[in-house]
Design a protein that fits this description.
Helix content: 55-70%
Radius of gyration: 31 Å
CATH architecture of the largest domain: Up-down Bundle
InterPro entries: GPCR_opsins, GPCR_Rhodpsn, GPCR_Rhodpsn_7TM, Retinal_BS
CATH class of the largest domain: Mainly Alpha
Strand order of the largest sheet: 4-3-7
Distance between the termini: 61 Å
Shape: globular
GO molecular function: G protein-coupled receptor activity; photoreceptor activity
Protein name: Opsin 7, group member d
Number of domains: 2
Strand content: 5-15%
Subcellular location: Membrane
Number of helices: 11
Membrane topology: Multi-pass membrane protein
């Protein structure tokens, strides 16, 4: 990781590329299996959307500024950058908070949790965006301020504004209380209840020697993955929250710029955790990804099978031999072939050992009538002759 000789600001790591690829893959897999998504997985999709939006809006501006060791854009762009960072970051945190509550409802209070439907999930997803929007639009409405980060290559909330503006102090206190302390408390309490319930269920299962149902196993997997995502997200953002509060309640310039820079990079790397956890450890997502990859490979190299070790390719629909039929007069025999030499099944695009190759060129029929013959495209033959040829 390179360091700026001027401000000591580290150049951003390639987490933006990883986030773009990971969240893009996760959304693609979710779209392919959209008909079988569970309500709780709606929040995972929403989390992936907010992470992807953060990556698309922030990293293209932050990366060149980091290499230049200064903010390269104007004040309006700085305000938009800060707004997007706060909006998508708070949406992700609110989304994880709701997800933990839903998991708690399903595991600890199944009579109510079983009634949780896709429509309920959609309403809560919308509520998470509205909640985040309220705090993101505040500085644009003069409740708090947006400005350059102390290390000078990005923009966010002006953490030093409380020293000169009382409304900025109320905004930062409200932000810290309702967008960090309360969500963290809800998440920890929810998963604490889940752990206690699961422990009690295990004891009951051992006493009655009754196996777990498939539904219970599915719920347990979702809970484990949700816990992993929440831990990763909170671990990434907690250092930034601590540094921000340190700056808000201390004299300007007391907090080293490098502390803000490292905390910000660590926080923005949280956009890569969600796709890694779900694509690698959730079986149905992993199977869908493998199936889509195989489907893409079949489309990329369709229809023609290469022979093992010979480099020859042969279509499953083409026998590779000439077809000869008599039609009507015995003096007029018509012989059909694909117009290629004896090794017409060979494909020049096949490397030895490959399983597939590119489709062959346009097929030609050689029609022989008595001693004369000619070549015509197969598509121009009559239906009966095409059937004989194919």
């Amino acid at each position: 990781m390179q360091m700026s000789s001027v401000t000591g600001v580290p150049v951003p790591p390639p987490s933006g590329v990883l986030s773009l690829l990971g969240n893009g893959l996760l959304l693609s897999v979710a779209y392919r299996k959209r008909s079988s998504l569970k309500p709780a997985e709606f929040f995972i999709i929403n989390l992936s959307i907010s992470d992807l939006c953060m990556t698309v809006t922030l990293f293209p501006l932050a990366t060149p500024s980091a290499f230049a060791h200064k903010w390269l854009f104007n004040e309006v762009t700085c305000q938009c950058y800060a707004f997007c960072g706060v909006l998508f970051g708070l949406c992700s945190l609110t989304n994880l908070t709701i997800l933990s509550s839903v998991c708690c409802l399903k595991v600890c209070f199944p009579n109510y949790g079983n009634k949780f439907s896709s429509s309920h999930a959609c309403l809560l997803v919308l509520a998470s965006w509205c909640y985040a929007f309220i705090f993101a639009v505040g500085p644009l409405a003069q409740w708090g301020r947006y400005g350059a980060e102390p290390y000078g290559t990005a923009c966010c909330i002006n953490w030093y504004a409380p020293a000169v503006d009382a409304s900025a102090m109320t905004y930062i206190v409200s932000l810290f209380l309702f967008c960090y302390i309360v969500p963290c408390t809800v998440i920890f309490v929810s998963y604490a209840f889940i752990l206690l319930t699961v422990r009690g269920s295990r004891l009951a299962v051992q006493q009655h020697v009754s196996p777990q149902t498939k539904t219970a196993n599915a719920h347990a997997l979702i809970v484990k993955l949700s816990v992993a995502v929440c831990i990763g997200f909170l671990t990434a953002w907690s250092p930034y929250a601590v540094v921000a509060m340190w700056a808000a309640f201390s004299a300007p310039g007391q907090v080293p710029s490098i502390s803000f820079a490292l905390a910000a990079i660590f926080a923005k790397s949280s956009t890569t955790y969600n796709p890694i956890v779900y694509l690698l450890f959730k079986p149905n997502f992993r199977k869908s990804l493998c199936r889509d990859t195989a489907h893409f490979r079949r489309h990329l190299c369709p229809g023609i099978v290469c022979g093992n070790g010979s480099g020859a390719c042969r279509s499953p629909k083409e026998p590779g031999r000439t077809s000869q039929r008599n039609h009507g007069d015995v003096s007029h025999s018509t012989r059909l072939s694909n117009g290629l030499p004896d090794n017409h099944g060979a494909c020049q695009h096949c490397a030895e050992g490959r399983a597939r190759c590119l489709a062959p060129s346009k097929r030609i029929a050689r029609v022989m009538v008595s001693s004369a013959h000619g070549e015509v495209p197969v598509s121009q033959l009559s239906d009966g002759l095409q059937t004989d040829f194919l």
